[in-house]
Fold:
Amino acid sequence: MTQPQALDLIPALGAEIINLDLRNRLDDETVRFVRDVFDDRGLLLFRGVDLDRAQQYYLSELLRGLAPPSAEEAEAGAARQGGFWISNKEPDAAAPFGRLLFHCDGMWSDEPFEVLSLYAVDVQPPALPTMFASSAYGWDALSTEQRSRVAGLHGLHVTGPEYIHERRKRAFDGELSQPHRDHFPLIAQPIAHTHPRTGQPLLYATQGMTREILELPSEESEDLLEELFDHLYRPERIYEHEWRNGDLIVWDNLLVQHARPNVELDGPVRTLRKIGLPVPTYAEAQQVSTYQQVS
Structure:
């Protein structure tokens, strides 16, 4: 029997898993294999798979390190997220247009998503990619001097680009997508963050959701954040995924940041089915009425 294998995508993050049938429940040995690769690489890619939402939920849930859900639990969990789409064509989908800067979903909450997954249901070329960057690799690649500079500093994380520094917003000239929310939660976290499951050190700051460093004056804060972003998002440290129908990507939302270019409503179809785990308790903050362009 052919054994599953993991092929690194780029040195900084990610692995493509081959020789693995995701349509059936995984045995204990295979679960250990995919979890080990996931914790090490932060992102798994499966190409050309045929999965329903419950199967996508099952895989996403078992990568959190908990007992794999039963078939009934996976069906129920998938049903709770039945309307979770990233699409420029599906009614009421999230982020239907605009650019998304690098971010981690829900990092403005004390209960952010742990695991996210996207499955390409309908993408038509030239569908725009999703980009990924590793906060763990970002930390590992910092110099000793850079680590000492961020020690003890805290980033203030907000819900999106409407609230980031004006200098950063101006750089993207009206391309940014921003949901309207009923209220605007925020949270402060150490820039030198520790992953709660793996213990990995993370460079926990993102272009799209970190508004400022609390201990520094505004301009000095933005200068240091720009330096950190230049470090995190160097081209060779970014995995840029060109979507094809049947692609599934699952990633650790605390370890891996994601972004995308400017999606247009009248552009090629780009419909991705999304699962986010655990299901957050901040549902009132997730209620999105409309999206606007942020200049």
